[in-house]
Hints:
The chain has 135 residues and is mostly helical. The chain has helices spanning 23-51, 60-66, 70-98, 102-128; strands at residues 2-5, 12-15. A two-stranded antiparallel sheet has the order 1-2. Helix 3 packs antiparallel against helix 4. The radius of gyration is 22 Å and the shape is elongated.
Amino acid sequence: MAAIPSKSPGKVTVRRVKLERSYERYLWLFMRLSGVAMLILAVGHMVIQHVLNSSANLTLQFVAAQWSSWGWKTFDILLLWMAIPHGIRGLFNILSDYVHNPAARRLVGIVLGLFVVATVIWATIAIALFDSTRF
């Protein structure tokens, strides 16, 4: 609701602003929310992997030991779910500056969307089904 001062003193005109629900609006909101989530997840990942642990210890056995716990798998899956769509949406925004044909822009969006869906599903399955006992 917005209040607009009236020309006559003491009177305020009130009008309701209705926001459109659109696909672009939800993507804009996703970029903001995933950015905040990644700030926490990615900084946590960097601190855990590179500050608290030595970079020399980052081996397959180290990852296998971490992924033996569903807590670490969940942490990494959440990071994956935020980072890949966020980064690809950023790439789409950059490409939109250079692709001016609406049909070509739509094709680029579809190809990138399919890439995101395939990559997120594939990587989630890989993390979830990772067998740490083999390493």
